[in-house]
Amino acid sequence: MTQLSSRHLTGIRGLKxxxxxxxxxxxxxxxxxxxxxxxxxxSLRDITIANxxxxxxxxxxxxxxxxxxxxxxxxxxxxxxxxxxxxxETLVDTVNNILAMKVDLxxxxxxxxxxxxxxxxxxxxxxxxxxxxxxxHPTQALLDAFSMRERLGDLEGKKVAIIGDIxxxxxxxxxxxxxxxxxxxxxxxxxxxxxxxHINDLGVSxxxxxxxxxxxxxxxxxxxxxxxxxxxxxxPYFPSLREYARxxxxxxxxxxxxxxxxxxxxxxxxxRGVEITSEVADSEHSIxxxxxxxxxxxxxxxxxLLSANR
Amino acid sequence: MDSQVLIDxxxxxxxxxxxxxxxxxxxxxxxxxLIGLQPRGFILAERVKxxxxxxxxxxxxxxxxxxxxxxxxxxxxxxKPIAASSTHMSFLVENREIILIDDVLFTGRTIRAGLxxxxxxGRPKTVQLLVLIDRRFQRELPIEPQFVGKSIDxxxxxxxxxxxxxxxxxxxxxxxxHKPE
Lengths: 310, 181
Hints:
The complex is a heterodimer.
Chain A: H1 17-33, E1 48-53, H2 59-70, E2 74-79, H3 91-100, E3 105-110, H4 115-122, E4 126-132, H5 138-152, E5 159-163, H6 170-181, E6 185-189, E7 205-207, H7 210-216, E8 219-222, H8 241-248, H9 252-256, E9 263-265, H10 278-281, H11 288-308
Parallel strand pairs in A: 1-2, 1-3, 3-4, 5-6, 5-8, 6-7, 8-9
Helix pairs in contact in A: 1-11, 2-11, 5-6, 5-11
Chain B: E1 3-7, H1 9-26, E2 32-37, H2 40-55, E3 63-66, E4 97-105, H3 109-119, E5 126-136, E6 147-153, E7 159-163, E8 172-176
Parallel strand pairs in B: 2-3, 2-4, 4-5, 5-6
Antiparallel strand pairs in B: 1-8, 7-8
């Protein structure tokens, strides 16, 4: 197989296992490319990509931008600050106007879940999801799975725990879907208020005990508490950050209690001292920086394979 | 007749032997490395290296594999993308004399992409080209090989296939009148 089964990357849902394998294989070659003295290949030199960020982002935007530049694509960047979106323009109009400037591919982050699927149905271009609200973040899930495979080999039967604010996390859903496709066992762990009801329907187990989860897993993927997404109603999701850190924060003491070494991941940005201590984040158990490096290779692979589909 | 044998197993061994000797006329391999274009050029490079190593056992010879997929000029002009192979070169090409190796030289476009891919790894002192089959008069770019296994005259629609033998089968080169499905 040399071609993705989907024209867009709106989410992990809809992809097949062979798609993931193709992306990983291509990313392996791109990882070699970005470690060369000259880190650029001319593959996408006749392609123009628009990066539309309707929501804040540092890592993902830089990673996509770097991936596009390494592939020699022309790029234009857009963020909601200072744009006509503030004047009331609709999403379809905004994108159609950008496409009228002869753009071939759109990378978009949007606060509304499903915005990409909506757009894919309305406009004639290739859409790559760089995060839609609390729904999906497919390239993050791909780079997470790619990094896990680098460390652990085949993920079939491996135990992966996703720990923290599952309810507000798009990384969690995409990760669950991709890990299940690759045959891993997945468990989510966090306070009851931050785990969605019926999440078992996705085929994952649920735990509210961090120590027990750490004993079980081969990989712990720590998620950030997304305060900006939590509606600050009368009743908060948990009493205080301090209490959260005591119950669900990963520290060296907890790791040292285990009888084996586990791999620690974090999609960033890290809230040091809340979900993970500095000591753990900077330890040899952590592959956080490998994740960032792999992010560029994975995004190059996705853009390369989707451009071929045009 | 749909296909003919251009090189059989016995001739193949003789051709590799000659190519190795021709290389040694010009290179002592203290400054020279072999680089095969993935996938089939690398197999040929390994065969050439094996023969060279028998002739000059005291000199270690580097042999790398270079993938040109991302440098091709026909990306998105084909119906399906080409799957990438891996590049592995455990040595630096900077200031070295490079022998670029591929199985069949036809339009010259793969070699063009190969040169581009090679230069991304540094600036070699010289680059020479070795091919097993040179399909003469079919070039679309000004690229010529220095070391040739066999030159043939062929038609556009014909197709050269190299079967790399193993323990069970023999190496041979076939010329088909049509590209096999």
